[in-house]
Design goal:
Elements: E1 14-19, H1 25-34, E2 38-43, H2 49-55, E3 59-62, E4 88-91, H3 93-102, E5 105-107, E6 114-122, E7 138-144, E8 147-150, E9 156-161, E10 164-171, E11 176-179, H4 191-202, H5 210-225, E12 230-234, H6 238-251, E13 255-261, H7 269-280, E14 285-289, H8 291-298, H9 304-325, E15 331-333, H10 338-344, E16 371-373, H11 381-390, H12 395-398, H13 418-437, E17 446-460, E18 463-476, E19 484-485, H14 490-503, E20 507-512
Parallel strand pairs: 1-2, 1-3, 3-4, 4-11, 12-13, 12-15, 13-14, 15-16, 18-20
Antiparallel strand pairs: 5-8, 6-7, 6-9, 9-10, 10-11, 17-18, 18-19
Length: 525
């Protein structure tokens, strides 16, 4: 069945990314957007010739993926893609499947794999590699089990690595290019230059901006909604707030925001949200204090996926109730982002593996009778912030760290109690205050405290304590898909731990989480 493109801008050339299941496919889109190139990602199994004709891409990129071309039912390119007459770039599995289909050969087994840092040695010169190899071999990031052992007719070799004799290949006459490594990740230092060269070869003008996105999103919202009423799930975070302001600009008083206070917010957050939207933007806002219902439903629940699904189900119930209050809203607006979507899809809906479910991804139950409006679904967090600036949101608000829809539920591993939430709110507030006082807030992508499902023995005032342990988390990131822990000094961590233990009753031990993503996720649950 043909899947319609998510966006159809009239003023921009389009690049199609065909997804074969890589966890970093979205980073390809991220690199292209940095170059102001409009692109869309679509799973290989949702594309047919009718789709290709309707989408009319100016260039195509094949992503990586976990499969082998020899597996039964292995992902394959859509029929007709090689006949479009446009430049194609294959990455990792994308290279292998390109060679396999066009007459080359791929091998697996012992000695063919490369994982992590590798170095590519240059072959002949190639326009795709302009700016590469000026100082010798180039560092790249490999993640492959199979490799190409024979290139397809018409291709030549332009770079090799120890376990990838055809690390860079191209058929220049047909504008087909293929690399075994991942140029989209930061561990390939000159990967961005390779994408820049590719879109230049394809003739892209690089004219897709947040200003253009704003105009096109407003047009799409008006076309989708018409004169119907919309309710927007407002959490107070950057994503839902930008979505609300954008939709309000598009349809004005047809929008009513519903701020669901689920009892899992940070200290003072409800008051801040209500003040900003009622006083600054004059957007109709319903304050739905449903904390008793949410906390009651979560009582005794410790499994993180059950927590997320319970919160998602209750969100739907609350929205449905208030949709009737506003006179029969036909649409529900959400601030869903790209990373939410990729972590939530499964192989049945797309080729990537499910990491964790997100309460705002996966559609709506039929009983709601509402259709979704998700104007940020194809954006990364930093793009949302750029859009927020276009819309005139306060800079201090735009720079706020991300806060998950399920709130403190996923920063409270194990069973949730009112006591633990109260302790966590106070401890988190002290931690963020410390970060601000030391001038580190804007260097950090996301920072938060999590109360651990354990108590430890301590000594305070010559007396024995038996209180909770607290984990501190802070990461740096560009897009939320990968992240490194922030390297606080020991002095900072010691000072912060002392403040938390002295000022927050119920905590007697503090840990700092030094795990990157991957292998961990940013949140603890």
């Amino acid at each position: 069945m043909t899947q319609a493109p998510l966006h159809a801008p009239l003023l921009h050339d389009r690049l199609l990314i065909i997804d074969f299941g890589s966890q970093v496919t979205q980073l390809i889109a991220r690199r292209l957007r940095e170059l102001h190139v409009y692109c869309e990602i679509h799973p290989y199994n949702k594309i047919d010739e009718a789709f290709l004709a309707a989408f009319a891409p100016k260039a195509v990129i094949f992503s990586g993926g976990p499969a082998s071309v020899y597996w039964e039912g292995a992902p394959m390119p859509p029929k007709g893609v090689f006949d479009l007459g446009v430049p194609i770039l294959g990455i990792c599995y994308g290279q292998q499947v390109m060679m396999h289909v066009l007459g080359g050969h791929v091998e697996g087994g012992h000695g063919t794999a490369e994982f992590g840092k590798a170095y590519v040695t240059a072959g002949a010169k190639l326009p795709l590699l302009e700016g590469w190899f000026a100082a010798g071999d180039e560092q790249v990031w490999m993640s492959h089990g199979d490799h190409v052992s024979k290139i397809a007719p018409g291709f030549e070799v332009y770079g090799t690595s120890p376990n990838a004799p055809f690390a860079i290949t191209a058929d220049v006459s047909r504008h087909f290019y293929a690399v075994q490594f991942h140029p989209e990740v930061h561990h390939t230092p000159k990967g961005a230059r390779l994408y820049e060269n590719f879109v230049k070869l394809a003739g892209f003008k690089g004219d897709w901006t947040m200003g253009a996105y704003r105009e096109e999103a407003i047009r799409k919202i008006r076309e989708q909604v018409g004169d119907a009423k919309v309710i927007c799930g407002l959490s107070g975070g950057v994503d839902s707030s930008v979505a609300a302001v954008l939709i309000h600009e598009a349809i004005g008083s047809q929008l009513t925001c519903v701020f669901v206070d689920h009892g899992l917010l940070r200290l003072g957050e409800a008051e801040q949200v209500l003040k900003m939207f009622r006083d600054t933007y004059n957007i109709p806002l319903i304050h739905a204090d449903e904390s008793a219902m949410f906390l009651g439903a979560l009582e005794g629940v410790s499994d993180p996926e059950v927590k997320r699904k319970t919160i998602g189900r209750l969100f739907i119930d609350v929205f449905q109730k208030h949709a009737h209050e506003v006179g029969g809203a036909k649409f529900l607006a959400q601030g869903t982002l790209y990373p939410d979507v990729i972590e939530s899809v499964s192989f049945s809906g797309g080729p990537s593996v499910t990491i964790k479910s997100h309460h705002n991804v996966g559609g709506l139950p039929e009983k709601m009778g509402l259709k979704l409006v998700e104007p940020l679904r194809e954006l990364f967090k930093d793009e949302v912030r750029a859009l927020g600036r276009e819309l005139g949101l306060p800079e201090a608000f735009i720079r706020r760290h991300p806060f998950p829809g399920p709130g403190l539920a996923i920063r409270c591993p194990g069973e949730i109690t009112t006591e633990k939430l109260d302790i966590l709110r106070k401890a988190d507030a002290v931690y963020i205050d410390q970060i601000r006082k030391h001038g580190l807030y804007d260097e950090i992508w996301q920072a938060f405290a999590a109360i651990l499902p354990m108590k430890t023995v301590g000594v305070m005032g010559d007396g024995r304590t038996y209180d909770f342990a607290l984990a501190l988390r802070a990461v740096t990131s560009v897009d939320g898909m990968t992240a490194d822990y922030y390297p606080f000094s020991h002095d900072f961590l010691g000072e912060t731990a002392t403040r938390i233990i002295n000022e927050v009753k119920g905590i007697n031990r503090v840990f700092y989480d030094c795990t990157s993503k991957p292998p961990g996720t940013i949140e603890l649950e």
